[in-house]
Structure formats: structure tokens, C-alpha cells
Prior knowledge:
Elements: H1 2-28, H2 31-36, H3 44-76, E1 80-81, E2 88-90, E3 93-95, H4 97-105, H5 115-128
Amino acid sequence: MKTKWNFILWNEALGFSLLIVMSWLTEILHIPHLIFGDPFTPNWHRAVIRTCVVLLIWAWVHWITRRLLKRLHQLEEFLRICGWCRRVCHNDRWLTLEDYFSFKFSTPTSHGMCPDCLAKAVKDLEQDGKPPEPTHPK
């Protein structure tokens, strides 16, 4: 992912560098005089001001691009979990949470009940006399 970031930021830098070079070449090579026949009056202040403006815009665009790329990277790290069976999508394969933790983190898993599910199970047992069905895949 960092390679993609660098590629985008380097292309951005290349584009803004070309704008600065073109600004200076306009003054050095007398381009308006050659194309439009305007009288030649080099204006170095204009080139310096253009360069400063382009550098300010470049800094702003660079900052925004880095923020967007960081946010994109953060969003790409999210786990996709099926809302029905709670399987996790990893490399376009749908794994159970247990398989995912075992594969990704080499972490063994065990099962238990959270306090909310335990309270619900006790309440259901008291009302119906039978335990509720678990909501995770088997």
C-alpha cells in the first residue's frame, strides 16, 4: 500500500514541479513574445510570485492527498463480517471467527457467554423452559 501512496504523491510532485518549470521557462525563453508577438519585458517578480503560489497550492494538495490516502488505508483495514452468520471475509474467503483468529493471529479460541447473552438465556429458560439457540455458525 505504501508503494501506491508514494506513486500517487510522486506523480503529484512531478505535476507541480512541471508547473514551476513552465513558469520559469516562460520568462527565460520569452514564450509570450514568440507566440503572441508581445514586446519582451522579463518580469522575474511575476515568476517568483507564480512559484510561491504554486508551492502553496502544492503543499495544500499534498497535505489533503496524504490525509485521504491515510483514511483510505484505514478503511481498507476494516474487517467485513457477515451480518447473518458472523463469518469474516479474508482474501475473498469467508471464514468463521475461530478460523480467522487461528489463521491470522495464531490465536486459539474458546467459547463462553457474555453477560448479556447469559441474562437473556436465563430469562428465556425461566419463561419457556428451553435454552435459546446460539446465533453463531457451527
